[in-house]
Amino acid sequence: MFMNILVISIGVFILLVFLTIFYVFFMNLKRNVNKNWLKLYFPLRRRQDMTPALIEIFKKHFPANKKIFIETIKARQKAYFEITDENVAEMNFMIKRIISHGKKSQKMMYDLNFLEMKNTFSENNEAVQIAAVEYNIAVNKYNFWGKVLLQKKVELFDF
Hints:
The protein is an all-alpha fold. Helices cover about 90% and strands about 0% of the residues. Helix 1 runs antiparallel to helix 5.
């Protein structure tokens, strides 16, 4: 009788330890996903916050090109309120469009504010690309282990 209780207690203890290890493992995966999302989120927000300054520099050199100003502001607002691939891509396109106009203009190429802003955008884009790769890796790990666990759960209950 005593031996049965001891064996059951040890089994329950081992099961609890195993479940705790699984729980900590998945919480670390989830925490890693959230941490990498923040590493991506802040450079995206920084780029959105720098966009009005870039527009002001562009306005100074191309005051007649109001269509680009309006399109860029709309793209920024959409990406600011909802970060989706489509909205971010549209904003990136508009920023690249402004910078390419600036590269063609002799006046803008000698404007120190524009050159500084162009370099800042370039550095920020590199940070976004690195953070996006790290975020995708973290999400893939999280999804992989979730799939494995769900698959095993289905196999356990498959009659």
